[in-house]
Amino acid sequence: MTQGYIHSFETFGSVDGPGVRFLIFMQGCPMRCMYCHNPDTWKQNVGDLMDVDSVVNKAIRYKNYWGKEGGVTVSGGEALSQIQFVTELFKALKAKGVNTCLDTSAGPYRDEPEYIEIFDELMKYTDLVLLDIKHSDSKEHKKLTGISNENILACAKHLSDLNKPVWIRHVLVPGITDSEEQLKGVRAIIDTLSNVKKVEVLPYHSLGIHKYESLGIDYKLKDIESPSAKSIEIACKILKAAPRT
């Protein structure tokens, strides 16, 4: 039985996919986003090691609360860091008629035939992808997250080719991602895709700073405040998006 390292669960999520959702946060992430509010999910091969059946049984207990639109969302960390486990998990959930949603930044994605074959197997059992686009410029993306964005944009294009429903998410960080040029760049990327069902602007916040302090990690954005209502409004207009609080 395939096993995966789990960071935590949330039983009644309402913002990570449609309806009421059971959230599974996978452990491990290759990216180091400056504004990440879960730095405790970065390390690989730690956390609770669980098999697919155990996770499915834990989630199914809440199925009566999901309604017609709800279901299970797998997030992280980075869910694609444990793609084999997530694939087997979604396969088992679909066998039980559960709506599945993948929340990813696509950091591990590779535009190579061997990886695409594995990724497409996961997509067979995935109803919706929540895809983060961190920054439109590759160099700035690397400064912000630790990696460039070419493979992430390749993933976005591949999802469009598959016609897999996607919600695009963009974190609005004052002084980093809120310029008109950058936002228009993100919108230009979105305009190349044919499968985007929704765009969300996520206002930056520093609520996770205490985690950095407890882990002894320097938080580089400590002096940055949350974006203003006007800034959020402008971003939503450019991106043709809805704000998520």
Question: Can you walk through the features of this model?
Answer:
Strand 7, helix 6 and strand 8 form a beta-alpha-beta unit. The protein has one domain: Aldolase class I (TIM Barrel, Alpha-Beta Barrel). The protein contains eight helices and nine strands. It starts with a strand and ends with a strand. The radius of gyration is 17 Å and the shape is globular. 34% of the residues lie in helices and 22% in strands. It is α/β, with parallel strands linked by helices. A nine-stranded mixed β-sheet has the order 3-1-2-4-5-6-7-8-9.
Give the helices and strands, then pairings:
Layout lengths: L2 E11 L7 E6 L21 E4 H9 L10 E5 L7 H13 L3 E6 L8 H11 L4 E5 L5 H8 L4 H13 L3 E7 L7 H12 L4 E8 L5 H7 L13 H11 L2 E2 L2
Parallel strand pairs: 2-4, 4-5, 5-6, 6-7, 7-8, 8-9
Antiparallel strand pairs: 1-2, 1-3
Helix pairs in contact: 1-2, 2-3
Question: What characteristics describe this protein?
Answer:
alpha/beta, TIM Barrel, 9 strands
Distance between termini?
Answer: 38 Å
Please count the beta strands (DSSP E, at least 2 residues each): 9
> Helix and strand succession?
EEEHEHEHEHHEHEHHE
CATH topology (level 3) name: TIM Barrel
Could you tell me the strand content as a percent range?
Answer: 15-25%
Order of strands, main sheet, comes to 3-1-2-4-5-6-7-8-9
Please tell me how large the radius of gyration is.
17 Å
The helix/strand class is alpha/beta
Average pLDDT level = 96
* Alpha plus pi helix count: 8
In CATH terms, the superfamily is Aldolase class I
